[in-house]
Amino acid sequence: MNKIFVIGRLTQEPSRYSTTSGETYCRFTVAVDREYTNERGEKKTDFIDCTTFKKQAENILKYLTKGNLVAVLGRLTTNKYYDERSQKNIYTTNVITENVQFLDSRKKEVSSLTGELPNQNINPGNSKDPFDEMSYNTETQSQFDFNEDDLLW
Q1: Which domains are assigned to the chain?
Q2: Tens digits of residue pLDDT in 24-33
C-alpha cells in the first residue's frame, strides 16, 4: 500500500502548469516539522513536494497562498533523470495528491494581550473568497482534545 498523509504549511505560492493535453495541475511544497529535536534542541523540518491535478489544482491555485496550513493525502512517487550539467542521475520524491484539505486560509492574527484568536464573522452574502473570513470558536476546539492513549495502534 502506498499512502502518505502530511500536515504542514505551504512554503511558497502554488505554481500552475498544464499538461500537453491542456489539463491544469499545480505543484507546491509543504513544510512539516519533525516530532523530535536534535542534540542542540533544534527542530528539523521536512519539505514535501506535492503535485495536484484537475479541479483540486484549480481550488489550490485560487484559495491557497504561502503559509497556509494544509493536510495532504496521496501516494509517494520517485523519479530519476540525468542532469547534463552535473553529469549525475538526480532522484526526486514527490506526493501525487488524492485529497488536499485546507486547514486555514491565512495566517491567523493572535492578540498579543490575550493570546486569543480574533472573532470574525462569515458574511454569507459575499461572493468573494469563501475562505477569506473565518470564525474561530475556542470552546468547540477543546472537544477534540485527546490523549495519545485514546488512539488504537
Answers
A1: 4-150 (2.40.50.140)
A2: 999 999 999 9
